[in-house]
Design goal:
The structure is a single chain. The chain is α+β, with helices and mostly antiparallel strands. The chain has a single domain (about 10-160), classed as Beta-Lactamase (2-Layer Sandwich), CATH 3.30.450. The protein has helices at about 10-25, 30-45, 80-90, 140-160; strands at about 50-60, 60-70, 75, 95, 115-120, 125-135. Strands 3-2-1-6-5-4 form a 6-stranded antiparallel sheet, sandwiched between helices. Strand 1 and strand 2 (about 60-70) form a beta hairpin. Helix 1 (about 10-25) runs antiparallel to helix 2 and helix 1 runs parallel beside helix 4. The longest helix is centred in the last third of the chain and has 19 residues, at about 140-160. It is globular. The structure holds methionine sulfoxide (SME). Methionine sulfoxide binds near residues 81, 105 and 132.
Length: about 170
């Protein structure tokens, strides 16, 4: 299923990743499957990451969704940490050194830099997409813009799909 990515480097890797994710989201109508697959693709394509995943807005709390990496914080209050700030301010945030970020929540002590983009559907916050790296300043401004584009694709896919609530049949 994965294209041969071992020989692709740098920006070309990100471009290929966006294409694969766009194709996946165009075809998949189940939000849980879409989120799980997007987190797995990002983790497979982008190098030097230790965690990638989603936090979903539930009331005034972010609750962890599909992810790749070590077990993470399950709930994050709005406004707390990088994810909480991106959710509360509804903007993508890039942090070069997480230890310097006010109110940073440490789920994995190996994380040094972080990228978070909000997922907005019809003006409402659905959740955030969070990437963590063990390398300081791992993420560029191009990465930030790319992750926001992917978050927007996720928003479109979730908006046209069924609810995340379990079906009672
Ligand atoms: N460090 C994050 C919490 C989430 S995880 O790292 C998986 C933050 O401050 O938002």
């Amino acid at each position: 299923m994965l294209p041969e990515i071992r020989f692709i480097t740098g920006q070309e890797r990100n471009s290929q990743m966006e294409i694969v994710i766009e194709d996946t989201l165009a075809e998949e109508n189940d939000p849980l499957a879409a989120l799980a697959t997007v987190s797995a693709y990002i983790f497979a394509f982008m190098e030097r990451l230790n965690w990638v995943g989603f936090y979903i807005a539930r009331g005034d709390t972010l609750v962890v969704g599909p992810y790749q990496g070590q077990p993470a914080c399950v709930r994050i209050p709005f406004g707390k940490g990088v994810c909480g700030a991106a959710a509360a301010e509804r903007r993508a945030i890039r942090v070069d050194e997480v230890g310097m970020f006010p109110g940073y929540i440490s789920c994995d002590s190996s994380t040094r830099s972080e990228l978070v983009a909000p997922i907005i559907i019809g003006g409402k916050l659905f959740g955030v997409l969070d990437l963590d790296s063990p390398e300081p300043a791992r993420f560029s401004e191009d990465d930030l813009r790319m992750i926001q584009r992917i978050a927007n694709l996720v928003a479109k896919a979730v908006a046209r799909s069924a609810t995340l609530e379990p079906a009672l049949v």
